């Protein structure tokens, strides 16, 4: 098993334990990760107790129609944007009736998209107290960008629900 998969598996297991202990649930909305975040979460033992499901919304119209991302936001900024990621997370959280939701959007490459270079990644978290997003600048090929986005999303939730284990990270 490669190092980034080991890290994502460890994070997923820690998240499942923490969410289960709190009686919380999780859903995800993905674009550039194409289902990889859902796979990381579903492979963890005990996934069915906390992981409600996912929406893989590669197409911009799916982001608007299924996840209820504002069409005017998509028209003005495009799908590679932190606020879009937050609205994706909020949309899937509502759709799945989950306590928390994660979202990924960005450019995995190999080509730029709407002026954004490969490696531009936005991950977002929505929860009972609002939402936040983080922009990641990732270097590497398409697979490396996608794996970094998965880890970035898992880390964002980890830092929120287990802040004592993540010094210096807050939101």
Task: Tell me the major beta sheet.
Answer: 5 strands, mixed
Instruction: Name the beta content range.
Output: 15-25%
What share of the residues lie within helices?
Answer: 40-55%
Average residue-wise pLDDT: 92
- Coarse morphology: globular
Distance between the termini: 32 Å
Q: Roughly how many Å is the radius of gyration? A: 15 Å
Instruction: Report low-confidence residues grouped into runs of 5 or more.
Output: 167-171
Question: What structural class is derived from the secondary structure elements?
Answer: alpha/beta
Count the beta strands: 5
Series of secondary-structure elements, N-terminal to C-terminal: HEHEHHHEEEH
Strand order of the largest sheet: 2-1-3-4-5
Separate helix tally: 6
